[in-house]
């Protein structure tokens, strides 16, 4: 179905695009606390690199802080490019599901960028205190499909 | 010109982004029939890999089914990342032209993803039975430019 | 904050997406004058490849014309894929800041595409004569970070 033709859906998509873009840019700049704050307090992040999901902002921030310090020591910059995002209509509780493709690009000084990972990202987003936040994020890697 | 500043253009873009994202995700998951249903009944698809365009849902679905079976046998996942989409204003008949860039990324188990193809995609989209569909799609590959 | 929930922000984003997509497509097709016209008359472009910013349409067009002629002689096609765009709310003077990620993909005949550069693009956009234009653009390369 052509589910939505209202301006409301366009506003939703525009907001979520900004949310996702900012969130990825915070992650890539290593701003661990600001990135963790884009999740709900007990937000769940199930990345492909860990056997168990991470839950809660403190754990989320700690993970990014450690990963970013390691990359900085190696002189590597990472970018998370989120594209091809399918934003669903909001559910009865106002949450919004989004499936998107995320390329992870890694670059070292004076070297060509490498396409490190090709991922699929499934989000459940909610509005909390007037802000979009991730309640649940499940990421899969194509090389482990 | 700043052609359009109305909410209608924003709604159009949001709908078309969802259409494209879902369509690429259906293709990559190998859901041949659902993908073919995103074209009009006599929809035309002119891919760079074939000497003649494919026309009609049955032929479209058959092509994707065969290609996906081959990739599955080889253990390869493909993703079509559609970005940089220029959505034109609707024409007099309501059809909408969109030019976008499509990266095709191929990944095998335990291997790094490869940027397989860089393509330009020219679509003519129409609304049929309340749904966006592709009436014509022309794809060119940069390595055969 | 969930800064904006009005249809106005969605319209702004849709227009800017079209502007950016068309601008990148003009650049990649080598249409130097049309590309330069997407900057204000005295628009500033600070690319990572030059020691000093380029200012003004004549200089902008000359740079693209020379670069495109060189690539054409080498049989190379380049694509600028702009994604993950964070569009800020307009400032008091109506200008809009956008931070986005740009992949530069280079392809030669019968060869696989290469991810040539991973860049961050910071724009200041304004409306002039009813059209969006770049007043300032700062681009950084991850391999020179």
TrEMBL record, chains A, B, C:
SUPFAM superfamilies named among the record's database cross-references: NTF2-like
Domain SnoaL-like: 14-137
A UniProt-annotated Pfam family: SnoaL_4
InterPro entries: NTF2-like_dom_sf, SnoaL-like
Signal sequence, renumbered to the chain: none
Name of the featured protein: Nuclear transport factor 2 family protein
Lineage summary: Bacteria, Bacillati, Actinomycetota, Actinomycetes, Kitasatosporales
């Amino acid at each position: 179905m052509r589910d939505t033709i209202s301006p409301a859906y366009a506003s939703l998509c525009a907001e979520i695009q900004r949310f996702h873009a900012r969130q990825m840019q915070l992650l890539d700049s290593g701003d661990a606390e600001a990135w963790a704050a884009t999740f709900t307090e007990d937000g769940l992040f199930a990345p492909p690199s860990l056997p168990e999901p991470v839950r809660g902002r403190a754990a989320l921030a700690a993970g990014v802080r450690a990963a970013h310090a390691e990359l900085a020591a190696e002189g590597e910059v990472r970018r998370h490019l989120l594209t091809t995002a399918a934003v669903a209509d909001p559910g009865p509780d106002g949450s919004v599901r989004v499936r998107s493709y995320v390329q992870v690009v890694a670059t070292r000084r004076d070297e060509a960028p490498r396409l490190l990972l090709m991922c699929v990202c499934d989000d459940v987003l909610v509005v909390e205190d007037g802000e979009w936040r991730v309640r649940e994020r499940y990421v899969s890697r194509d090389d482990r499909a």
